[in-house]
Structure prediction request, 140 residues.
Amino acid sequence: MPQLPVNDVMIILERDGAVCLAERQGTGYADGKLNPDEDVYDAAIRELFEETGVFVERDALRIVHTMHYRNPEGEPRISWFFVASHWQGEPRNMEPHKCAGLSWHPIDRLPDNTVPYNALGIAHYLKGEPFSVHGWEKPA
Prediction:
């Protein structure tokens, strides 16, 4: 039976040419998933608040990229990348048991340890590309 894709949400907090990134610790990657009773906007708002203490209103969110991705373990995912035009609060680490810290990085020079599909989504956003497919390549 085919595996249904997991839906992930990511909000790009961008300020002065930098993006706020969370460094995962003691957990897997791609933890920002939708709950069964929420849409992608509600999930993004909830995840951002849970992880950073930052509140964003629905009308401040704009979907900038959607990615159909198959991770190295073969799990299909659909990732929804949002940009927040404005938000309330200063990002802080609300999940120290899952996150080693939050830090700002130049959006066009992400750290080497950035989760690859997050880096891909941000790169597509910077190019103005609304959709991509990764990880589904057939062996030669």
User: Anything to note?
Assistant: The beta strands are 6-12, 14-15, 18-24, 61-70, 76-84, 99-106, 131-134. The radius of gyration is 15 Å. The first helix runs from residue 40 to 52. DSSP finds two helices and seven strands in the chain.
